[in-house]
Amino acid sequence: MKQHKLFFRFLVVILTITLVMPMLLPPLSPLAGESSDLIELDDIQSELDDTLDELDETLSELESILSEISETSELESILDELSELDDILNELSEELSESTDTPRRAIYILPGYSVSKLYSRRFRGMPIWLGPGIVTDIGLHLLGGRLGRQSELVNNEDGTGMSAFVDRDRDRFGALPLYVPMVASIRAALIRNGLDHIYTVEFFPYNFIGDLNESARELADDIREKGYESVILIGHSNGGLVASTFVAHSEENRNMVESAILIGVPLWGSYLGLEMIETGALTLFDGTFYMTLINAFYRIFLRPISRSWIMDWARNSPNLYQMTPGPEYISRIPLLYRTADGTRGVTEMDEVYEIFNRSPNMNSNLVNGNERSLRHLRETVFDGDILGVWEGIDLTLMGNDYGRLTPITVVYRQHGSEAIFDGNVFTRAGDGLVIGPSMNGDGRFDFINIPSRMGHVLMAMEPRTLRTINNLIFGNPVSFSEYDAGLLSSADVGISDMLRVEIKSSDPLVATRRNTGIRVNIYNQNGVRVAEATGDSQRGFWDNDFVYSAWSNALYETNILIYIPKEGYTMEVFTGNSNPRASDITVFTQTLSQSGAILSRNEYHLTGANQSTRSIFTLNGGMSLTPSIGSGVQIAAISTETFNEDWIFASTMLYLESEMSFIPEVSGPDAIYVNMSDYDWHSSDPTVASVSDEGLITTIGPGTAIITAIARDDSLKIEMLSITVYEVPIE
Hints:
By secondary structure, this protein is an alpha+beta fold.
């Protein structure tokens, strides 16, 4: 409760500075330095200084609070309180435009994915995302197009035509006020620096289900209609892709950008969008504070059908395809494709498109078919190099490139003529949604790393983030000394302290009259339940930096992928099957290397479980990798595989002259077993460095290339080596 009061006090101070102080303080003009004006401002300035001091103190308190609480659970009630302020924020913000001297420059804040509000056209502007209209919209989804009705979030097959819309006059801070601290701190800094008559702060919501190109065009129109001569762009997450598309569209747009700050942006892509299309999982929200907005009603009524509702609009959402990894990503970190002959890495985009188009859940128009597709944005608008569109612009990248479990690649499995989604592979080299290499620009631009346990979403309201943004805007020194020692030390073990568990079953993923779905509970060493899931619904996994993903495909009704610590936690799995025919479940328990490769896989077949047996099995990786079965359950050990993949490159970054050839050195417990010809090798840029089928690397010309080794076994092993070739000066 004390934490919530401090946070609430922080928002009260922010509201005072953001909305009240601009009304008290007249806009400064070029003549504001005259003595008569200064005398009139003395009293107001004194009060302003006191308020700004209080803001600084409260930001420090907030930083302390955020460092001690989890990503979501303890913030749920805080954000409930913040949502109640939304009406007040909208009313007061109308008064911000009462300025006698309109600024000619603007600082545009472009929010992350799904933070903008979407309104109903059919029901008189009722908020759908996020608001009461979500219930109505899911009802329309249930009609399945009957009576000419469907979800207002659904586009046509070409990625256009959705009914819901953005209303920038009503949406001042987004679906949830995550950006209130950012808006407030920047406005306060403008006042403190006497620049509030030169710059104004604009929060720019956009249609995140639509086309990034259209969002960029609307941004350009908004800037010009308001008469701004130049802008500073601040993009968080997907908002950074909007900014990149805006810059790529025209030289006129480029020339309007004074500078840009991109925070946790999936420059090369993220698998968030792909997972939504394939599974209906809203990993950004699932089991987190967002879904607390509709709380118990959500869990009782909406949860069982929400995934089909999400898949309904995700399939035809251009933005989701456009944020999926493109050529820059795939050339460095391959997609993995399982066939009867084993697993191989896919490093060419044409084959990635072909695999995506064979998925029954994906829309080929938006994969590589039209101007709203992944291919068009990445290969035509960005010309295969999103960072290249920023060349010549003052750009700074920020984020947390290490610490939370983050999907690094995706696995597809051949099934007849189809390619079916088979789960993600995780690493700790990211913020939970975006991996480090995709956000840090490969060294081409300044990157400020702010390690934090808060992860991708809350990075936007971290006090360290806010201080850094203001320092960059106003040309103050930027501190690189704020690190989280706990996160940095975890790099020594990577993900080897985790256990990967896969559950496959014919039980339905979504609850039915006779089967409520497989249920999973995670307990800590004190016996306290810290995470839980039923079928496709989960809570507590994101909070604890665990992973829970569930989906259906042509092979199994239920596929569940879990990452939990090997030691200190116990997983208990229950069946919801009340049929006479008991559940038939296959379980894989897998240990991992530092980089996330599978070192051992144990397969078990469990039968005989129904609701009367209660627990199917429990698993404590610190004690045994064999499930402990419940009463009445039979278990059969099917297979055990061991992979000698516990090795890494001895050096992951090399700086070399051209015309050198060598086999990279490896280290680790399994280094003696490494046969280079057992791997598929790939160079992201063969003009810089090439690599043979036997792993022989040859440096060729100046630049940087990523050399990737992909195991052909089923270990999901990927190792990367960065090589920078420099020119030797001619004497």
